[in-house]
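Notebook B, p. 112. Complex prediction, attempt 2.
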Amino acid sequence: MPEILLKNVTKKWGGFTAVENLNLEIEDGAFITLLGPSGCGKTTTLRMIAGLETPSSGEILIDGKVVFSSEQGINISAAKRDIGFLFQNYALWPHMTVYQNIAFGLETLKWKKSDIEKRVAEMLETLQITQFAQRYPSELSGGQQQRVAIARTLAPSPKVLFMDEPLSNLDAKLRGEMRTELKRLHADTGSTFVYVTHDQLEAMTMATKICLMKEGVLQQYDPPLKVYSLPANRFVADFVGNPTMNFIPASVKNVSEKSALVTMLGESFDFVSETPFEIAEGNATVGVRPEYLPISDDGAIHGTAYSTLPAGMETTVKIKVGNTILSSVMFGSLDYATDSNLRFTITGNMILLFDKNEKCVAHGTMVKHK
Amino acid sequence: MKKLIVLMLMAGIVFSCFAGGSSEKAQNSGVQAAVKAAEKMTWDELLQKAKEEIGDNELVIYGTTSRVNEKTFTEKTGIKIKTDQPDDTQIYEKMQAEIGNGIYGADVFVTTDSFNLVNLAFANSWVVNYVPADAKQYIADSDQNPLVALYYDRLFIYNNGNGALKNYITNVWQVTEPAFKGIEMKSPLLEKCSMNFLITLTSPKWQAVLADAYKAYYGKEWVNDGTYTNISYEWIHKFIQNCAFINKDSTVAKDLANGNMGASGLFLFEKFRGVNHANLTVAANEGIEGFAGFLYPIYSVVASNAKYPYAACLYISYLMKEDGFRALFGKDMGAYSTNTSVKVAADALAIGDQEFSFWLENCVIEDPNYISSVYAQAYTKIAGWCAGK
Amino acid sequence: MTKNNISNRVLSYFTKPSNVIVVAFLIILLTCIVYPLYSVLNLSLTVGQMDSLMYNSLFGLHLKKGDFSLLNITMLMFGKFEKDYSISFFWSPLWNSIRMSVYASAIAVLVGGVIAWLITRSDIKYKKFISAVFVFPYIMPSWTLALVWKNVFANSQVGTGVVGMLESLTGICVPSWFVYGIFPCSLVMGIHYAPFAYILIGGILRNMDANLEEAATILKADRWRIIRKVTLPIVMPALISTVLLVFSSTMASYAVPVFVGSPGNFYVLSTMLRALYSSSYSGQSYVMTLVLVLIGVGMLSLNQAVIGKRKSFTTVTGKSGQVSYVKLKGNTLISVIMVVLLFFMAIFPIFSFALESLCEVQGDYSTLTLKFWLSREPIGGFHIAVGEGILFNPTIWKALGGSILLSLVVSLVVGTSGFLVGYGVSKKRGSRAATLLSNVAFFPYLIPSMAFGSIFLAVSTKLLFLRGTFFLLVLVASIKYLPFASRSGTSAMMQLSGEIEEAAIIVGAPWITRMTRILFPIQKSSFISGYLLPFVSCIRELSLFVLLTTSGTLITTLLSYFDERNVVQMSNGINLLIVLIVLIVNFTTNKLTGASIDKGIGGN
């Protein structure tokens, strides 16, 4: 079954390197998201796997078969890679009806007419767009167009499905709905999904594994929760999670095998990890997810309420400590008067320590030094 | 895709090879001999020989006049023709491109411009001269080598205001006067025969004529004050300065016929009948001191690589016969066969045309030998004047 | 890099149809353009047989045909022989050409721009009529307008005093400079190309986001200030494009200066080119051709330099739904004036052709007859065989058939090529090959038709299989008319996102299917316009073919035959026939497919 392998894939345009020496293994049936800010090379990577772009060097295998190799001069066309591709702008053919759009791929595969009719009807049914079959794309709303595009892509039952920011043109509500349905489709079809997005929430909620890239270089390739809680570096930590992680400037000394003395926010803390780590003494950064900074009357650290942002289910409180502003997320609806004093704690064993090179060296607990 | 393109190219080449079936190299050394033989044949002998030679194929004629396209030749002889009408530059360009490269293009040329005919066509042996036996005795020797089939004339003509104006142009020097500013003619830059006329005018013979006319008009001898090489150049320069160049003779004819009384021009007499000519007077018919206009030759010669030399000779022979001339040129006016047995039609004479001999006496006639001797200098000078108006 | 690797790369390069197309068209076009250009250069730098006779005699030289010589250039450009030879033949016509082209461009932009603004931004009446009829002057041959100009304004004070329509109706005599010379030349050329400006500028105005102007309104800018500070800068690229296209077209125009220039002693480069070509110094005409080509290249590079940087301006948002129309003061008056002007520019010529073809005696409207159209007997009264009336005349039908066949084949070849070039260029956009291709494809536009014809006559003597064939006519016309088809093809392709085709690649549709079932249908109207424009240009073309074909094979050669023989009823009738065919083809194509000439020129 399809397993996708990328070996040392590089893509250059003139002097600009879009993707650098990328190695990636995508298991069968996975839902992979290629995540990163715009220009990080994620779309290029996707297009190279799909065969729409030719890599400058490297090798790509799908299902054990070499589909591209710069060494061997192999470059199998997109048409023969047995894939589906969902485009950002849907790329629906404006001169064809919904029915014709979906049937087109099956026609090129020389399906029998009756089979085509059956399959199209099935797809229309699945995506709940049966009533639009004879309409033209321009007569549909964005969400409906999206469904048509999905139906068209899924109709030939591709083993691998590539999606290039397919939800970015939809409004927030529709996007949420479509996420659910895409995840459901993934389960139903059992195909391998490769999904490009710059929206970390999409990546987090849908993927089985996230491939996070920056400037053409792979940063981390792990399941979403691992990427969330154990980011490889500050870039990853910053990119994933909303509100973003608090990065607190700190200085480290008295480093032992599994602990260190950390000074930040004008106070001293004992950092203890379960695993040994190494870090040079001096400046460092401590990373704390907002949910690990609960506000409580008996909290160890003092600060003032800078601003309170209730969202109903949870509330984000911006806390000012000295010159640093921290985010804290609390369950429920809270309100703190601006500039009022409050106290909070640092909890949990997922407090991160980044070295001078912004690499995450350890996670552990942070307790106020006594 | 690659295959498709290759295929298309191949198809194109094959297609054009078929379409261009007539384009094989035809280096017919027998043309000279055939023409020699034809010169001794009567019409009937030649007709038979030509028919044998050409069969059902087409005789190709290039002519600077569209009149070569009349159907009467085919009706008379059963020989099919195909014609092309290049202008007096293009016809020599075509000769050079075709005969000069050993390619068969045409069998017969009907063309103007003695200078190019002599210095290009004959000098390079692109063409062969032929004089039909039965017409030879009626053709002046000077018109036999190369054979002039006929002459056309361009004449000074003015608008007479429906008969109100008479004797308006009586001396050729008048047209150089301010009163004649705007006198119309086709630009000598665009037509060789007009240029050849002006060059011929610079010959001693016409200098003398102009000097006499000058004396008659101004009442004094012409004196060379150094401005012009000779009297002819003064006349030419002043005339050109007065001219309005129009791109077609038919337009000049219309302009004069429909214009103000006194509007004048020098135009192809052939166009006279096509317009409201009751309004027009030919200066020559009232008498004009100097010259009444000019005659220019239409030559007819055989291509030196003709495919059907006998048929070509037959065609030329036809042009020289009365019925041929009448069918092609003579039913209109202002065209004069060099075959002196062919007279100008009565209906033409009725509206102002005259016999050839009259025009020979009253017009400047293109003089190939003189033109060749002074061509470059005279041409460049006059062309510069025409361009720099 | 190993050898194997390189050959792999070459192979994989040619597996992409877009690469094959770009390379194939580059090769074909470079051969068909570079070779002719090389021969022009060669002919400029060598002496022909007649040239050598002239030069040898003038300067006492011993040049032979084909010898290298700079004399063609030096004599034309610097010759002092007999007063100012070079000034008469070159510098003064050059100056005239430049002035005429500058004025014509200004008039085109002004007239076209104003109409474009009126149609897209004001509440002027009869919009449909105005915008439909305004393209007529471009569709019709340019000299029809010159002819009408002459027929209307000629008067008893000018030339031989033929009375024109204006004088006979009102007694007004306009001065000579109004009838002949640079004024009518510039004006007629300007009006002929005004639709160009209208289409290009109007296209941008129509697609320009109205918010841009509304934003300025909210900032309390007055109308004029908005036009000056917002609208004008945004349409500037289209404006510059128009100016440069009109400029180079006017430079190469021949018929109009002949009709209304020469009688006023107004000579331009193209009329002098024709004179030189017919003269005994034909070598110098190639120098002139070269000059015209160089001016064209200069204009094109200027266009590229100016537009290249500012192209982003033209990016359309297409979201300008509600434009608030400017209320014109005296709307009805302005509208009526526009309609009347358009009537004279666009409809009157057609009427006058029709009328002239119905007069038994030319110019006498009391002698109307239909015989020149309907007579089944040969028409007498002329001294050439005129043949039957136009509708029953086998010669005319044969020539018309020839013209239509040629135009159809050419339009098929050119339209398809334009589509393919557009595809290749848009797929390879930014690559050097694509840029080269789009420039090379535009190049034939810069070579005057007459020079083009004469170059290919020379070529055909080298390539025998081409001589005198229909294929040669098709080839020459196809190359000559490719520029606009490739432009419209490219702009239509550029508007399609690459995903549209990729979506079809993914489902395994082969190249041909993608072209015929996806790309072509989507931009159908633009591409069909790419077929329409060559058809229209081809059927009215004369100077391109005159050297390459025999008279009577094409309708325009027949037209000049009747014209020359002064059978004006027939020539006017044929004129009308040509104009009507063009209009009918344009109209039907428009109704059936939505394509129109304006899309072919580059409007949206």
